[in-house]
Amino acid sequence: MSVPNSLLLMPYPQQISSSSGYFRIPSGGSIVLGRKEDCIAMPAAQKLQKVISKALHLTLPLSIGIHSSITAVCSFTQNPSLPVSVYEIIVVEKGISITYSSPEAAFYAVATLKQILEQTGRAVPCLYIRDYPDFGARGLMIDISRNKIPKQETLYKIVDLMADLKMNQLQLYIEGSPFAYESFPEVWKLETPLSGEEIWLLDAYCRERYIELVPNQNSFGHMEAWLSRPEFNGLAEIPEGFMLPEGMYAADFYPEGLFMRPGTFHTEDPEVLELLERMYDDLLPYFSSEQFNVGCDETYELGLGKSKELAESLGKGHLYLSFLQKIHKLVTKRGKSMQFWGDIIIQYPELIPQLPKDIIAMEWGYSAEHPFEEDTRKFREAGIPFYVCPGTSSWNSLTGRSDNMMANLRSAAIHGKNNGAIGYLITDWGDFGHWQHLPISYAGFVYGAALAWNVDANLQADVPGYLNKFVFVDKSEIIGDLLLDLGNYYKLESGLSRPNDTEMSMLLRSKLGNVLIVEQLTEQHLEQLTSYIKDIAERLEEVSLYCEDGELVLNELRNGIHFVKHAITLGTIKRQLVNTPGQVDRVILSEQIQDLDVLLHDYRLLWSERNRMGGLEQSVSKLLSLRQEYQALLNFSPAPSPS
Question: For an engineered disulfide with 286, which of 186, 196, 305, 344 has Cβ 3.0 to 4.6 Å away?
Fold first, then answer.
């Protein structure tokens, strides 16, 4: 096997070739910055110094300038004529040289060299790499608004993984109060939000790794947490809330319809803009980024309440565009470039050319079939810069939806590149309790990052191999494939289309008396799921992790498996209720109550390892309601007659 093929590199470089021979790293060499001008690569050189110390147990000093008395193990030389973000690595028998266009390019070169050294040791094969990204912005968005607000050290760990994968943008999605707005202490006083100081520290941590921390705050829809409060309720389009129109939710999950709290601003109320200005002025000073994602997606009530007459005369699309333009003025007034979710404006393609030309549309969609090709073409033809924003498919899944995730990430990359996207943002949401544990999302982080750097060479990227070797340090080489398999249990469900959901997750969130959801889930489905999950649970016990949080990862995956197992048994109970309404096997029901108690106990303990405590009780609220329903059914079900 040739050297390029034998090395596991993620993302795989644009160009790589090998030649005969090896360079053996001496114990007495130095890391050399060739000229004083090369001091701009000092962060990369310092990172390489740490990599060599950890991987090879060698302590190599840094040196500036070429000296005959110094053996250069690795030399850094800037070539300003190279395009931005381009780097070259040359390994010959006398040493390693890195040529780079910019400080971040030098940093990316070290990220590649880190993976090489961790596989080859001190005997580095002679090779040549020329590398650069397909997408200028390669980002990750973490949902910190749906119950789970990560601890600071959790965020740092995510940033370190991003840096290893050459990502350069992080967004923390904000709706509600995961941020401590200084002007509104009453909104978050019972929560555990990120403070401005913590954002500032995270921003600095990101900048040290050439990652831009972009503020992300929804500003139009998804304002339920604010508009449900008495002091802000009058700013809502429909203050009393509304029923979501049919066709926008699963009828078997919500047989009585879906009531929504007020979540969309009334666009014509001047106090709305005043509120947004105060929120922006609390949030934005802690970010060094010149960009700002203002959200503005899923404005369900727009034109259905206070602005109904205006929407009927102007058109709902024009009403949306008008408010978006008002927000754009607020953003540019604060010296920021505006990003916004593109799902509403894409419904009115004739209006896309009227968007400000310095705005960035975030084209999102999370199914394997999402029309990235068609939608991105509309933005391209209108001259509006855009990102593609696929997802990890982790939310509402318990343990992921692996095949959908990979197809969705792949489609976004292919069509985004073909149609000229300027960025690729991987989204990781936390709807309905944020029950999935962080490691469930790692495969999506890795595969998406690889595609964002180099689409063509990473379509078949060895994601399991990377997870085994570099993320989890699994000596058994099991966990990578196991994670993807665990995320594919959904393929054994009924086969009905469940956008952004799995039926096992839906079972746990639905009312116990709602048996419509199991009409398509047969006993055979449940038996197959039981066997599948049992096999994965057994495989998990063979895993041997040497990463720092290895035991925590194993317990998180055990808990995720426990969620699925509990849901399967719940499916069996609901099927019994179909056959004998109001009656169920009391032994099974009693055991299910005890099982849920254990599940909740473990979940609470695991939550506290990576996340702040605020949001936990809301996360488990549906599970606690389910327990109450179990108990009520047990009290109602007749005891078996004595024989």
Answer: 196
Give the Cβ contact number of residue 381 at 10 Å. Answer: 12
Q: Please say whether the beta carbons of 139 and 108 come within 8 A.
A: no
Nearest-5° angle of CA 103, CA 548, CA 540? 120
State residue 67's pLDDT score.
85
For the stretch 586-619, pLDDT in tens is: 999 999 999 999 999 999 999 999 999 999 999 9
Q: Are 83 and 69 in contact (CB under 8 A)?
A: no
Tell me the residue type at 619: S
Please tell me the predicted confidence (pLDDT) of residue 632. 95
* Model-wide pTM > 0.85: yes
The Cα–Cα gap between 14 and 133 comes to: 8
Over the stretch 431-471, which tens digit does the pLDDT of each residue have? 999 999 999 999 999 999 999 999 999 999 999 999 999 99
Average pLDDT in the chain:
96
Q: E strand or H helix at 604, and its extent?
A: helix 586-610
Q: What values do phi and psi take at 335, rounded to 5?
A: 75, 25
Question: Please, is 626 exposed, middle or buried when counting C-beta atoms within 10 Å of its C-beta (0-12, 13-18, 19+)?
Answer: buried
- Residues in a beta bridge with 39: none
Q: Please give the Cα distance from 280 to 295 (Å, whole number).
A: 13
> How far apart are alpha carbons 299 and 301 in whole angstroms?
6
Angle made by CA atoms 607, 611, 612, in degrees to the nearest 5 = 110
Q: What's the residue count for the chain?
A: 643
- By the 8 A CB rule, do 488 and 545 touch? no
pLDDT the model gives residue 518: 95
**What pLDDT, in 10s, does the model give residues 4-19?**
778 999 999 999 999 9
Angle between helices 586-610 and 550-579 (to 10 degrees): 150
pLDDT band at 639 (very low <50, low <70, confident <90, very high): low
Spatial separation of the C-alpha atoms in residues 92 and 110, rounded to whole Å? 17
Average pLDDT for 179-197: 97
For residues 458, 464, 469, 471, the Cα torsion angle rounded to the nearest 10 degrees is 90
Cα–Cα distance, 13 to 96 (Å, whole number): 17
Q: Report yes or no: 483 and 400 within 8 Å, Cβ to Cβ.
A: yes
* Integer Cα distance of 344 and 410 in angstroms: 23
Amino acid letter, residue 505: S
Q: Provide the residue type at 588 as one letter.
A: I
Q: Measure CA of the first residue to CA of the last residue in the chain; give whole Å.
A: 72
Tens of pLDDT, residues 486-525: 999 999 999 999 999 999 999 999 999 999 999 999 999 9
CB 208 within 8 A of CB 180: no
Per-residue pLDDT, averaged over 258-270, amounts to: 97
Q: Strand 386-389 vs strand 169-174: parallel, antiparallel, or unpaired?
A: unpaired
d(CA 614, CA 175): 15
- What is the distance between the alpha carbons of residues 453 and 15, in angstroms, rounded to a whole number? 12
User: From CA 449, how far away is CA 463, in angstroms rounded?
Assistant: 11
Nearest C-alpha neighbor of 196 from the set 280, 279, 281, 286:
286
Sign of the four-CA dihedral 416, 402, 175, 215 = negative
DSSP-H helix ranges across 382-466: 402-418, 442-453, 463-466
pLDDT at 408: 98
pLDDT one-digit tens code per residue, 129-155: 999 999 999 999 999 999 999 999 999
pLDDT score recorded for residue 25: 96
At 173 the three-state DSSP class reads strand
Sheet holding 95-100, edge to edge: 15-24, 123-131, 87-92, 95-100, 72-78, 30-33, 62-64
